[in-house]
Predict the 3D structure of the following.
Amino acid sequence: MQRGARLDRRIDFYFDFSSPYSYVANEWVGALAARHGRRVRRHAILLGVTFQAAELKSPVSYPIKREYSVRDFARSARFEGLPYAMPASFPIPTQNAARVFWWLADTRGDEAAAAWATAGLRAVFTRGEPIGERDTLRALAAGHGLDPDEAERVWNDPAWKERLKRANEQAIAAGVFGAPFFVVDGEPFWGNDRKPQIERWLASGPF
Amino acid sequence: MQRGARLDRRIDFYFDFSSPYSYVANEWVGALAARHGRRVRRHAILLGVTFQAAELKSPVSYPIKREYSVRDFARSARFEGLPYAMPASFPIPTQNAARVFWWLADTRGDEAAAAWATAGLRAVFTRGEPIGERDTLRALAAGHGLDPDEAERVWNDPAWKERLKRANEQAIAAGVFGAPFFVVDGEPFWGNDRKPQIERWLASGPF
């Protein structure tokens, strides 16, 4: 059955814990996928690494663009009916949160990793929490039902550092140069604002 | 009457004749504005100048981003039901087309300038015409009912060169760093993909 076949088809969703548009997209991508019988495979990446590979910089590193971007981050969240806050220091280091993500993905599966992604993105962009800092990230882990000592061992473990490095390399190989970035049936979509195009693709196929 | 008062309120729409997303936005902005009792004031600018002011570069100047962008240009046009073609050489020089635009705007009004904007953008992005070339631009002018000799005199006239320079400076002062760029009631919106946000703003005010 076509419906059954479609259930196996996934949407790849690349995000960085420090990306405001990723926070917004993370809130709608699950429901959108489910409406069309798809599942979502999340990929935590480091935007700094993909920017470097593509010789790009963050939009907030350009003074004139920064002012607009900060305004647009909040407006784009409100447009989706979401609360929004900016961390006092931005962007924030996210490699530790991303290593915990991959540990969960590889040992407990996509859904456990997705729940951590959502917890982390909401911590940063609804409460402005600096999850790059040790104590803040430990508290986030504990509040999420993880053992904070185990979480800290994970993010200091060379094996999980290597796992994140592989994820970044895989993302770059897949053409990812920003976040959020989606790949649907091989078709790349960059940005929270590609939601209407993704929705049409899912509803009626390539256009 | 509130309805009448609103008719006076305009949408500022900044574009470059070499911007694919400006071509797409130019096709919907008029009808969208009219549905909400607004008029559109178009501003032809040179993206190269605003990029330089903001220390930015064109997305197609980054190899990894270029491939995605070229794909997304065409897809974003199809999403709006529009035909699309890329000029063989891209981006193209647009200062002469922009000078003719300002000549029309200042001597014949916004509607005459808007018609030229639409003719130019369609020439580039539905037929791939290199309107940076003298003969091509003369033919476009003639096909548009202008005297090609007069059009050429305009684009070589220091006064209209200066007029375009002022338009670029005014755009930079208004915070414009890309195209299409919209200002609605003082609120800046960058990109063809901000259409849903602009539509909500026009329908129900600030959000």
User: Anything to note?
Assistant: Residues 110-127 of chain B form the longest helix (18 residues). The CA atoms of residues 104 and 112 of chain B lie 6 Å apart. The first strand of chain B starts at residue 10 and ends at 15.
